[in-house]
């Protein structure tokens, strides 16, 4: 790297000049300082690990019939069987992967699209700003879940459709937050300075503005991830997600809810997983947003 | 003029303010922000508290009200207002004393007055006795030279000018007849003319009421003008203290000398006459008009800048000087008239200019805290504009950065730093380095020293002078007339969007033709520096040896 010669030079002239002030701790390090973030990371990591590696350690496959339906405990199935006699624990281990994948892609897609729109609207202003933000307002008028159900019932349950719909419903919410952050950055002189030398607009947005809205961006990403998990799980429960016989936490709750008094495990395990995951993600987001309030005060005087 | 009342006459009572060994520490690091400060101010006198940013003068000012900013704490010492010990009292006692015993006038009146309250309500809020409150409100308004009729009392703060707002703040502070009044840079945001009015009000009010004043400022000239006694603060300690006349004529502490030397002096004594040789101007502005929407803020602007010359654009806030400089650089698009740079008309938008034009005209912003992207290293801050303006890849990036930093008098190792690791002055140097890296012909400096301390200002001015000697043309925008007399060869005085006077600095300042220029010079605080010459002026003074150090003082053209 080209940094090497500069480093050696600074070593040579080092003692002559005052030592550099240490940089302020970054967003992640500040967030890590909060106890809640640590708890959140532990909870989220536990569920993510279960979802990712569950299928490799499960005692049975997700569709294998191992015993009679609705027994609370059997040989080799510590949490009993579901309404068809499949191993609850195995289905639990299998059921998280797709949910996490869908939720994560939906959150990423929505945040990405929202960020682009927010920065463009906040920087370009004028009619483009009006067009983007008023379209956003129209999208915001549809409740997330109702919109998803409406479109899914027309087109049919598809994994890609879940991602697109949830992403699109996240988009206007993210765009609002990022536009607000952009407006604060655009007022500052370093953006003007880039304009004065004619740096192309897209480059100003990518190089000058984007790095300065990362704090609200991360908070938004965490928030949208939390909501996505909930919505994907609910869609699964309502039968709009994965179709039987695939394993899915939302689906499991729906399939086994009739016998909740007889075989509570079949409902309790997926419910607990979704709850712990949501709480964990929320705690991380909370830590990030607390840290960003401290960092994004703008310019100190 | 600093009044040098040397008589030690004291009234029967003790001094209005007597503090002893006050120490304030910051939490959680336990660093002493101010340490062991002892001061006393008799009634009717004003103590000027001078120091640079970060010296702890505001912390001390707030401590006088037994108030601490968040995460700070008074850990030692005593503060006596009249006969009451402020630190020994309970919270309720201290609260009762604020406004009656001690009052505070903050820096920005616009944010100190509640925008939702009418002046009547606002002023009465500060008054504790309810009987005859209306009469007292009117009385105090008359004293600060504001109207006292009902129509005025029914106004909201936003319906007043900055100077009126500050006088309302002064009225609010004096309404409870306090023993001590703490003024924290109350004139910083004001024009010199308004500043002169406000200072006169403060002076007469403290005299009439026999109130002790503590005037916090970084502006040596203002303090020299107003205060009876001056205390110089440096790194949380009072390093020198004495009567104004003595401190200015024979400073003892090296830091005081350094501070005094850095203050630009207003020279109305002819100054240096620029060479008469006819140079081809690099920038010619003819009949420029500019505005926002239907409002026209600039009319008939004619300016020429030649290589190696510095043209100062002097004006108060709202005179349109920033609009003019931004029009030239292509950040303000709504203008008409000729802006010719090196023989070619400049397009209104920087995006429609050629890369060569953009490279040759560079702009430096007022606030170095906002002009640098906080997420980039200094190296990239310099290299990216350079690469953009010179087109494509940079052959030897390290030498470009090193050269630019060196010309801005910064070590090359600073390239690896982030803006937050730099002081305000260093940031402004990086801005300069960024601008001069591309070897421009015209540098537009928009109030580039107004956010900086005087000593830093002196260094930046020195740096600009060196650039000018290398043949760069400078357009120096400022509101500080003393600074103009120290850096520029030509000055254009801008008032309400028109150039009212334009010519060589020496001629304009020594023999001002326009009434506005005369008022501007008269309202600038006098500042007599009799101990030694200021190095800021040595380069100019060297040419005219006959002027002695005494010349530094200014005379009111009356």
Automatic annotation (TrEMBL), chain A:
UniProt cross-references to SUPFAM superfamilies, sorted A to Z: MetI-like
Transport among keywords: yes
PROSITE patterns per record: ABC_TM1
GO cellular component: plasma membrane
Protein name per Swiss-Prot or TrEMBL: Peptide/nickel transport system permease protein
Membrane topology note: Multi-pass membrane protein
Domain spans labelled ABC transmembrane type-1: 96-285
Pfam families per UniProt: BPD_transp_1
InterPro entries noted in UniProt: BP-dependent_transpt_permease, MetI-like, MetI-like_sf
GO biological process: transmembrane transport
Transmembrane parts of this sequence: 39-57, 98-121, 141-169, 225-242, 262-284
Cellular compartments annotated: Cell membrane
Keyword terms, alphabetized: Cell membrane, Membrane, Transmembrane, Transmembrane helix, Transport
Family to which this protein belongs: Belongs to the binding-protein-dependent transport system permease family.
UniProtKB/TrEMBL annotation, chain B:
Alphabetical keyword list: ATP-binding, Nucleotide-binding, Transport
A UniProt-annotated Pfam family: oligo_HPY
SUPFAM superfamilies: P-loop containing nucleoside triphosphate hydrolases (SSF52540)
Molecular function GO terms recorded: ATP binding; ATP hydrolysis activity
Alphabetized PROSITE patterns for the sequence: ABC_TRANSPORTER_1, ABC_TRANSPORTER_2
GO biological process: peptide transport; transmembrane transport
Family: Belongs to the ABC transporter superfamily.
Classification via PANTHER family: D,D-DIPEPTIDE TRANSPORT ATP-BINDING PROTEIN DDPF-RELATED, TRANSPORT ATP-BINDING PROTEIN
Source species: Murinocardiopsis flavida
Name of the protein described by the UniProt record: Peptide/nickel transport system ATP-binding protein
ABC transporter domain location: 17-260, 283-521
């Amino acid at each position: 790297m080209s940094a090497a010669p500069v480093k050696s030079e600074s070593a040579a002239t080092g003692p002559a000049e005052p030592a550099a002030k240490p940089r302020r701790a970054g967003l992640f390090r500040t967030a890590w300082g909060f106890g809640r973030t640590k708890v959140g990371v532990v909870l989220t990591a536990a569920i993510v690990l279960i979802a990712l590696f569950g299928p490799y350690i499960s005692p049975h496959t997700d569709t294998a019939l191992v015993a009679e339906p609705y027994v609370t405990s059997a040989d080799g199935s510590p949490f009993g069987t579901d309404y068809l006699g499949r191993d609850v624990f195995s289905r639990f281990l299998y059921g998280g992967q797709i949910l996490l994948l869908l939720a994560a892609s939906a959150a990423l897609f929505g945040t990405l699209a929202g960020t682009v729109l927010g920065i463009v609207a906040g920087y370009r202003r004028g009619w483009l700003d009006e067009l983007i933000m008023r379209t956003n307002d129209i999208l915001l008028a549809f409740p997330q879940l109702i919109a998803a159900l409406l479109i899914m019932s027309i087109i049919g349950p598809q994994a890609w459709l879940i991602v697109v719909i949830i992403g699109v419903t996240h988009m206007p919410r993210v765009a609002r937050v990022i536009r607000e952050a952009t407006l604060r950055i655009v007022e500052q002189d370093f953006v003007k300075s880039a304009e004065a030398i004619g740096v192309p607009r897209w480059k100003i947005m990518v190089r000058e503005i984007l790095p300065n809205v990362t704090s609200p961006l991360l908070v938004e990403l965490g928030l949208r991830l939390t909501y996505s998990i909930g919505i994907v799980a609910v869609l699964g429960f309502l039968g709009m997600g994965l179709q039987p016989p695939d394993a899915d936490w939302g689906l499991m709750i729906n399939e086994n809810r009739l016998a909740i008094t007889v075989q509570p495990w079949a409902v309790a395990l997926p419910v607990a997983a979704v709850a712990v995951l949501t709480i964990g993600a929320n705690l991380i987001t909370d830590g990030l947003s607390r840290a960003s309030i401290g960092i994004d005060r703008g310019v100190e005087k | 003029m600093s009044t040098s009342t040397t008589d030690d006459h004291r009234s029967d009572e003790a001094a209005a303010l007597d503090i002893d060994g006050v120490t304030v520490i910051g939490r959680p690091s336990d660093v002493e922000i101010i340490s062991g400060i002892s001061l006393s101010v008799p009634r009717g006198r004003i103590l000027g508290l001078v120091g640079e940013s970060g010296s702890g003068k505001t912390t001390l000012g707030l401590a006088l009200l037994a108030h601490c900013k968040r995460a700070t704490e008074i850990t030692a010492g005593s503060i006596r207002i009249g006969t009451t010990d402020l630190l020994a009292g309970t919270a309720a006692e201290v609260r009762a004393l604020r406004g009656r015993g001690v009052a505070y006038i903050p820096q920005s009146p616009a944010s100190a007055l509640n925008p939702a309250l009418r002046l009547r309500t606002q002023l009465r809020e500060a008054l504790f006795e309810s009987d005859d409150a209306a009469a007292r409100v009117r009385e105090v308004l008359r004293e600060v030279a504001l109207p006292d009729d009902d129509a005025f009392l029914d106004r909201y703060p936003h319906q007043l000018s900055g100077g009126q707002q500050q006088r309302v703040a002064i009225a609010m502070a004096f309404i409870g007849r306090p023993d001590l009044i703490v003024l924290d840079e109350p004139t910083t945001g004001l024009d010199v003319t308004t500043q002169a009015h406000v200072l006169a009000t403060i002076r007469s009010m403290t005299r009439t009421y026999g109130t002790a004043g503590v005037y916090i400022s970084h502006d040596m000239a203002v303090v020299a003008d107003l205060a009876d006694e001056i205390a110089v603060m440096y790194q949380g300690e009072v390093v020198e203290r004495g009567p104004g006349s003595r401190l200015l004529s024979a400073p003892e502490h090296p830091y005081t000398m350094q501070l005094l030397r850095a203050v630009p002096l207003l020279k109305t004594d002819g100054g240096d006459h620029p060479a008469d040789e006819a140079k081809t101007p690099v920038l010619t502005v003819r009949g420029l008009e500019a505005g926002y929407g239907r409002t026209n803020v600039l009319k008939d602007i004619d300016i020429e800048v030649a290589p190696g010359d510095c043209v100062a654009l002097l004006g108060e806030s709202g005179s349109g000087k920033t609009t003019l400089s931004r029009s030239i650089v292509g950040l303000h698009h709504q203008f008409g008239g000729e802006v010719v740079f090196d023989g070619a008309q400049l397009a209104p938008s920087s995006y429609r200019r050629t890369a060569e034009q953009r490279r040759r005209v560079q702009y430096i912003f007022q606030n170095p805290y906002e002009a640098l992207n906080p997420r980039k290293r200094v190296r990239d801050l310099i290299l990216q504009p350079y690469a953009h303006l010179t087109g494509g890849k940079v052959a030897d990036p390290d030498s470009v950065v090193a050269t630019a930093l060196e010309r801005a008098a910064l070590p090359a190792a600073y390239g690896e730093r982030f803006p937050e690791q730099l002081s305000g002055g260093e940031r402004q140097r990086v801005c300069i380095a960024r601008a001069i890296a591309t070897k421009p012909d015209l540098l537009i400096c928009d109030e580039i020293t107004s956010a900086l301390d005087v000593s830093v200002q002196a260094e930046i001015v020195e740096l600009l002078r060196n650039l000018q000697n290398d043949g760069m043309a400078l357009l120096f925008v400022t509101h500080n007339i003393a600074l103009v007399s120290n850096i520029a060869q030509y000055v254009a005085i801008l008032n309400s969007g028109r150039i009212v006077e334009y010519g060589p600095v020496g001629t304009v300042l020594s023999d001002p033709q326009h009434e506005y220029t005369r008022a501007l010079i008269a309202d600038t605080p006098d500042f007599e520096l009799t101990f030694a010459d200021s190095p800021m002026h040595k380069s100019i003074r060297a040419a005219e040896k006959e002027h002695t150090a005494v010349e530094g003082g200014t005379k009111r053209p009356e």
